Amino acid sequence: MRGLMLLGLAAAALLGGCGTVGRTVGKTVETVTAERPHSGWEIAEDGDGLRLSLGEPGRKVQVALTCRVRSGLVDFTLAGREGDPAVMELRSGELIKRYAGAGHADPGQPGVMLVEFPVDADDPVMRRVADTGQLRIVFGDRRIHLPNAFAPAHDFLRACRAQ
User: Fold this and answer.
1) Would the pTM count as exceeding 0.85?
2) How far apart are CA 127 and CA 30, in angstroms?
3) How far is the C-alpha of 114 from the C-alpha of 80, rounded, in Å?
4) Segment 122-142, tens digit of pLDDT
5) CA 122 to CA 118: how far, in whole Å?
6) Environment class of residue 76 by beta-carbon count within 10 Å: exposed (0-12), middle (13-18) or buried (19+)?
7) Count of H helices and E strands in the chain?
């Protein structure tokens, strides 16, 4: 299941995302909007725990977070390109924090690197996401502005936090 999710995430990252995506053209950041009217946040049980994903029902997953219930840890997996840094920046309101990750090649997609970022479920940025539903991701040269996810993010992060 996780392999299919990551494959969909990789394809979505290459083909565009939901919300607003920025990319660098020369030395400036270009903002691109790719709207998908039926996209929505969804919480689902995964084999090992929970998954919060953004995508169209029955189609590609565009953004996914996973956790084991009460583990205190949330795993972000982002699809990037070879040479992308293993650093992700999360933004929620005025809070901004960078996270280090580790990447590996996606065997099903040449040139795609899957980078995994462990984030504490009680991290101040994640607490703000749970309180407001606002989340923006900066990864490599991409700026991803996600639609609000207040209710699902709140429920997902509450279940992921350690007791």
Assistant:
1) no
2) 29
3) 6
4) 999 999 999 999 999 998 888
5) 12
6) buried
7) 3, 12
Residue owning tokens 């994903």: 53
Reported as a single tens digit per residue, the pLDDT across 51-98 is 998 876 555 556 789 999 999 999 998 888 888 889 999 999 999 999
Q: What is the DSSP letter of 148?
A: P
Classify residue 162 as exposed, middle or buried by CB count within 10 Å of its CB (0-12, 13-18, 19+).
exposed
Measured distance CA(95)–CA(74) in Å, rounded: 18
- Which residues, listed in sequence order, are joined to residue 50 by a DSSP beta bridge? 45, 67
Closest among 58, 73, 59 to 116, alpha carbons compared: 73
Q: Using CA atoms, how far apart are residues 154 and 163, in angstroms rounded to an integer?
A: 16
The whole-angstrom separation of Cα 155 and Cα 92 is 17
Q: Which residue has the tokens 């995302």?
A: 17
**DSSP 8-state class, residue 159:** H
Name the token pair of 55: 């995508």
